[in-house]
Amino acid sequence: MYVYGRNVLKEIINAHYPVKNIYFTDSKKTDKTFKELIELTKKHKYSFSFAPDNVLQKMVNVSKHQGVVIDIGKEFKYVDETILNNLRENATIVILDQIQDPHNFGAIIRSSLAADANLIVIPKDNSVEVTSTVIKVSVGLAFRIPILKVTNISRFIETIKKHGFWVYGADMSHNIYYETNLTGNVAIVMGNEGSGIREKVKSKCDALISIPMANNVESLNVAVSAGILLFEIFKQKSGR
Amino acid sequence: MYVYGRNVLKEIINAHYPVKNIYFTDSKKTDKTFKELIELTKKHKYSFSFAPDNVLQKMVNVSKHQGVVIDIGKEFKYVDETILNNLRENATIVILDQIQDPHNFGAIIRSSLAADANLIVIPKDNSVEVTSTVIKVSVGLAFRIPILKVTNISRFIETIKKHGFWVYGADMSHNIYYETNLTGNVAIVMGNEGSGIREKVKSKCDALISIPMANNVESLNVAVSAGILLFEIFKQKSGR
């Protein structure tokens, strides 16, 4: 799988994420920030080579690769469920129930790390996966937060309840998000762009929380909703 | 300009927005929600006709038109600056300084109406405009909130200051958004996806406000940031 972009490479190196090879464009070897990236790559002993722009473009099928394409091997490395034993106290888990849009997923990854969430969970089926577009939209932050793929979201919710998590579904409800105590071990479930959280998954949640809206608007973009809820959790956990 | 989608048509009718013609697919005339849409169109005396799917597809260049294409005439109807004389007390203005991505713009329109903002402002140059993609992403809400295009953002900020607005730029700052009083007549300025607010525009702001972030993440997706700030303003103005 090929991923691309300068920020993406920086985050890969930051995260010491293992890759097969890094391809730099051969047309910008003298560019200053570019030289620094190559130095960083050398310093961390990553394998790299140079290639013409049109070869890079063919690898990733986009022109805005910024002169950097990274071969990260067969698939993005998801974590497994044993991570639940290693989460810190007062952890935050973000569960995405069948999100479809890579831009939404990428933006949610970015917000999750920024709001100090500790794990993102997606279902194996009917969900966007971590693709090169998702990684690009996440500005490479997908390499810095654990992402877990599970067979069954409902069963996963039961599992984390046993680990002491309180699970909130983002849905129409009388519980206003900023009037709800979101400290401690907490998970939020965000639903599909069109249809929201599936009924079966919703029934597993401890409570539903809602963002009050004006002008009879029914819902927000899911990445925006997730951002609002995640930063409320972050604020409350910071003791504000 | 052709726009498309069922929600988009609903919002056009809700807003009594004048259009040239509405084209329905001729393949779904018996579909229930579809019939209701046609009834609504008749009731509000909009002109409409039927056309084959492939004709609709050619008009909008996408396949997911949901059987509804609307010809809204030459250009989307922006408001003019006289709107400033008709804003309510304690109004909220959203100023977008050279946003490029139609998905971001559409999501911000949706959040703005949902958070009870009263006006969205974009610059004439180097900015995404209200296109059919923007309208689709806004789920048609672009027809329900005034959008103004100005030649010069800096000068516009000077104008609204005279109208009693306090102008906040979203940028790195020591002023944390939820510790800042955002009631009264308030405007927020959101910057370009890559480079943020231009220096000249920033210098016109009364203050900068910032969303504190963990893990050295430098910024969020601009639609997410806008959503977080807009819903903080909405919350404060609701007296919570």
From TrEMBL, chains A, B:
Pfam families: SpoU_methylase, SpoU_sub_bind
Keywords, alphabetical: Methyltransferase, Transferase
Chain ranges of the RNA 2-O ribose methyltransferase substrate binding domain: 2-78
Signal peptide coordinates: none
GO BP terms, alphabetized: methylation; RNA processing
Transmembrane segments: none
GO cellular component: cytosol
GO molecular function: RNA binding; RNA methyltransferase activity
CDD domains: SpoU-like_RlmB (cd18103)
Xref: InterPro entries: Alpha/beta_knot_MTases, Ribosomal_eL30-like_sf, rRNA_MeTrfase_TrmH, SpoU_MeTrfase, SpoU_subst-bd, tRNA_m1G_MTases_N
Family designation: Belongs to the class IV-like SAM-binding methyltransferase superfamily. RNA methyltransferase TrmH family.
Name of the protein this chain belongs to: 23S rRNA (Guanosine2251-2'-O)-methyltransferase
Organism: Marinitoga hydrogenitolerans (strain DSM 16785 / JCM 12826 / AT1271)
Taxonomic lineage from the root: Bacteria, Thermotogati, Thermotogota, Thermotogae, Petrotogales
